[in-house]
Every structure is written in structure tokens, then in C-alpha cells.
Amino acid sequence: MSPDAPKHSHWCNVAYWEHRTRVGRLYTVYEHSVSIFYDLPQGTGFCLGQLHLEHRSSTVQRTRGKIGYGILLSKEPDGVWAYNRSDHPIFVNSPTLDIPNSRTLVVRKVMPGFSIKVFDYDRSCLLRHTTEADLLDGPYDPNSVRISFAKGWGPCYSRQFITSCPCWLEILLNNHR
Q1: Which domains does the chain have, with CATH numbers?
Q2: How far apart are CA 49 and CA 29, in angstroms?
């Protein structure tokens, strides 16, 4: 690439987690969409099956086997969308899915073959001005999305925190659209 070529910046980084352990490096996304999948003989994107960890629990191994075709993450003019290409549900939490200043965590279940706007750009701009620091429980990133594979978390599930989920993604959005 020549030094005069326009710099194409990334729009997000993806971190893959197994319970409380991040596995592998951050995956930087430059294209408008990215496939995040377990294992395919052909294809491009973020292949979670290629990430190695020395000791995996049987729960993590079973859940990894359910990721399959995974998700398609797409940056659109109105926000970021996730399409569930797996044979199992995914579970999503995002600041733009929550009710502003709510103490209740909103986790949406997305069935196979369905999509959801996981991050709304316009709504995120409003949230930056309305979030009160004293209502937050711990660190808060207004530009992140969390997606778990096959297992949900939150008030309606036995797993209260995403770090209790066997396999999950943290989508760290670059706040420059």
C-alpha cells in the first residue's frame, strides 16, 4: 500500500471470551460486514474454531459446537445489525437496547434465521447525554455490544452475568461512524 493511499479505519474490534477468559487477540473489522463462525472449510471472517486454549471445560466445548455458522455482523447507516446464522439462539445486550437509566439489564434472545439491530447510532448519541454515573454498576462502555452463543444471562436466567456464559463476544465499536 502506498503512503498516499487513503487510510481505511476500522469500525469495530471483536473479542471472543470463554467465561471470564479472553481467548485470542482482538479481531479488527475494516469491511462493512464480518462473519463470525466456529468452523468452515471455506470462507472469510473471524473463525472461532481456530482459537486455542489449553484447558476447556466440557460446557465450553459443547457450546462451541453449537456456534456453527455463527453470526453476520453488519455496519449499516442506521446502526449495527447481527444476523443469527447459527442453529441455536444468540443473546444480545447493548446500551441502545436498554431503557435509559434503567436498573434492569435487557438481554434480547435472537432465534436462528433472525436479525436484530444491536446498536443504534442515533440512540447512542442520546444516551451519552442522559446516562447518570451514579446509576451505573461498574464499568460502562456506551460503544460496546455483548453477544453470547446458545446460553442467555441476566435477570431471567440462572446466569446473572455474561462472564458466566461459556462462549461470548464483545463488540467494541469505534465511535467514529
Answers
A1: 12-131+139-173 (2.60.200.10)
A2: 18
pLDDT-based confidence at residue 125 (cuts at 50, 70, 90): confident
**Core vs surface per residue 51-65: b (16+ CB within 10 A) or e:** eeeeeeeeebeebbe
Cell triple for residue 5? Answer: 493511499
Report the pLDDT value the prediction gives residue 1, as an integer from 0 to 100: 44
Alpha-helical regions (H) of 13-151: 58-67, 121-130
Order of strands across the sheet with 79-84? 46-47, 33-37, 71-76, 79-84, 115-120
Let me know the angle formed at the C-alpha of 154 by 151 and 159, rounded to the nearest 5 degrees.
55
Tell me: pLDDT of 145 over 80. yes
The pLDDT of residue 164 is above 90: yes
Q: What is the dihedral of CA 85, 90, 94, 99, to 10 degrees?
A: 120
Alpha-carbon distance of 100 to 102, in angstroms, equals 5
pTM above threshold 0.70? yes
